[in-house]
Each structure stands twice: as C-alpha cells, then as structure tokens.
Specification:
alpha/beta; Rossmann fold; six-stranded parallel β-sheet; four-stranded parallel β-sheet; 11 helices; binds alpha-L-rhamnopyranose
Length: about 350
C-alpha cells in the first residue's frame, strides 16, 4: 500500500481513535477500549513476515524515551534519527522531562496515535501503565517497538533489548564483588521504582548474590534516584549516612552512577566506597581518572536507537511481524533474529576502565 493511501486509511481511523480516547476519559474500561486491546496487534502482526519485502520509505517513526533531557536518550535517539534518514524515513521525538512522569508518557503515546505516525519506539517508565494506549496504537496500524525498557509482550510488537538482562545484573555484582574483595555491605542506587529494565537487572543481581561465594556480602538497601541528578546525589549521601560501613554501590542507571560518582568524588569516601553500574564513558571519564571509579559498563546507546529504528521500519515493511525465529537485516549492523517474546538483543555490553575509556566517545 502506498504511503498516501496508508495516510488516507489512517485519517479515517483517527476519527475513531479520538472517539475511543474521549470515551476512555469519561467511561473507563468501556467496551471500545477492551475490544481495541484484544484486537490490537499493530500493522506488523496483521500478516505473515516476508523477509524479502521492499523496505518502505517515507514512514514517520516517533521516538518516546523515558526522559528527553537525559544524555543517554539523546545519544540513543540520535542513533534512531540517523538510521531513519538513511532509510528515507522521518524521525520525531516527544517525551517527558522527568523519569517518573508515567502519565506524561501515556499522553505522548495518545498524541502520536492521533498524529498517525507509522511506528512508535518507546522506552517504558512502567511495565503496565502504557499498555492500553499502546494497544490502541497497534489497533490503529501503528507498529510499536519498545527499546531500552520494555512493557508487557502483548503491548508491543517487539522489544529491542540492550543486552541480556541476566548478563547485566550478574556482571554488575561480579564487578563490585571483585572491587570490594567479596566482603561487606553494598547498596543499589536505581532509577524509578517502576522501571522495567532496572527492576529486571536488580532481580538478577539478587539471584547472583545467592551464590555462596558472596556469603560475606550483604545487600542493605535499594534506593531510588528517579533518574534525577539531584535526587540521586542526595540518595547517595543518605545511603552513606545510614550505612557508614558501606563498601560499595551498584547504580544501574547513567544518571544515578554519575550523581553517585560526583558525591563520592567530593567526599571522604572517594576510592574507599566502590561504585560500579551502568554509565556513559563521557560522563564517567573524570571519575575513572581521579580514582573514584574503577570499572563500569554500558552498551552503545546510539546503536540501540539505530536498531530500534531499523526494527520499526522492518515491522512496517512486513519483513518481520515480531514472532520468534524471524530474521531481518539491520543495515551495517548485520542480521538479527527475533527471540522469545519478541525480544531482539543488541549484544554484549562493554566494560570500561582506565585502560580503554579513552577509546569511546558517547
Ligand atoms: C538511564 C535510564 C535508562 C537505562 C540507562 C542505563 O539513562 O534509566 O533506561 O537504560 O540509564
């Protein structure tokens, strides 16, 4: 179907979306919403995948990060923008400025649906809160890809995951355990309490800690900095006041680890209380060089955004539908295979330390 006719079809549908949204606002849980939710499967799931189908051009993909003013998402979404340009499609970005504004994210999904974008790439602040809105989007022929932080599998066509959640959770514990000599109290400084990605990693950290080799390590607290620099800084300070014997902190968020490093770096705990987790090399360089941080990890956020964009276009082009076992070509990134529950994995994260950090610029 040509882009113009897709537009025309969408325009007709938009009237019912608006009606459904209005209905949803006044009569929550009405049949319109439920039916939409049951049927909602997006453009992609409508047919069978044809890996040789031509790549569509002129599509609009709306990126909706957890938080727009977070440098991690700036890099990720720029990767998406660059890929879309290469593919002859358009990019737009909308999103809340706070990492906990879940209702703001829901409104943005509804706006993108009303604007009849072809696909949405979203990093969900909460696993369930976006479901109804995303199902409505899919029911209106919009392909939905989650990237970075997932919703439930039935609320999107595919999830572009940065790395195996299990790998990330376990390796962060391993990194910290080595740095503290497998002994002492540790804490976690996370992002939002609802974040699907951080919570999945934390569950694996707890699993890893069950191994007898960590018997002398005690996880004393999980604190939440909400991906807000100031709150994360204060939470770090609070952790050290509450647990003066703390030996280490894991912060699986780029905002959290940077704020924690900033606090430790200017305190008597510098070099004594160990810090690891997920950070960008550009944010963390000075803390590695001044001895606050030994090693931490991350994937390339721009590559994650690129893969999300390419997945959205492959779905819209009918090359994939999101089912396990389907494969598609993601330009120079190579071929990807869709795994269980529609998960596409970017690959292994990189561990950064004083030796290699200068090789990276993001
Ligand atoms: C923050 C966000 C994001 C997470 C990274 C590691 O920027 O919470 O979702 O993937 O950290």
């Amino acid at each position: 179907m040509s882009h113009a006719s897709t537009r025309a079809r969408r325009l007709t549908i938009a009237v019912s979306v608006t009606a459904a949204l209005a209905l949803g606002a006044t009569a929550c849980g009405g049949t319109t919403k439920d039916d939409a939710a049951k049927e909602g499967a997006g453009n992609a799931a409508a047919g069978k995948a044809d890996p040789n189908a031509a790549t569509k051009k002129g599509l609009t993909v709306g990126f909706l990060p957890k938080q727009v003013n977070n440098p991690y998402f700036t890099s990720a979404d720029k990767g998406g923008e660059k890929a879309l340009k290469e593919l002859g499609s358009d990019y737009k970005e909308v999103g809340p400025s706070s990492g906990t504004d879940t209702s703001g994210q829901v409104s943005y999904v509804n706006t993108l649906t009303q604007q009849q974008v072809d696909a949405i790439a979203v990093s969900a602040q909460d696993p369930g809160a976006l479901c109804t809105a995303l199902k409505q989007a899919m029911n209106n022929d919009i392909s939905v890809v989650t990237y970075d932080s997932d919703t439930k599998p039935e609320c999107r066509n595919a999830f572009v995951s940065q790395a195996s959640g299990e790998d990330l959770g376990r390796t962060e514990v391993q990194l910290l355990a080595e740095q503290i000599g497998y002994k002492g109290e540790i804490a976690i400084l996370s992002a939002a309490q609802t974040a699907t990605n951080q919570n999945a990693w934390i569950d694996y950290m707890k699993e890893e800690l069950k191994d007898p080799k960590y018997k002398d390590i005690k996880l004393v607290k999980v604190a939440y900095g909400d991906d807000d620099a100031q709150k994360s800084f204060q939470q770090t300070q609070g952790l050290l006041q509450e647990y003066p014997n703390l030996k280490g902190i894991i912060s699986p968020t780029t905002v959290g680890i940077k704020a924690a490093a900033q606090y430790l770096s200017g305190s008597k705990y510098k070099g004594k209380v160990r810090l690891t987790g997920l950070g960008t090399p550009n944010d963390m360089r000075k803390y590695v060089k001044n001895g606050t941080v030994e090693a931490f990890e991350l994937w390339d956020p721009a590559k994650l955004g690129e893969l999300a964009a390419r997945t959205a276009v492959a779905l819209e082009s009918g090359q994939i539908t999101g089912k396990e076992g389907e494969t598609f070509k993601a330009g120079a990134m190579g071929e990807f295979t869709i795994g269980k529950d529609g998960v596409i994995s970017l690959g292994k994260p990189t561990v950064f330390n004083a030796e290699n950090i200068d090789q990276y610029n993001f």
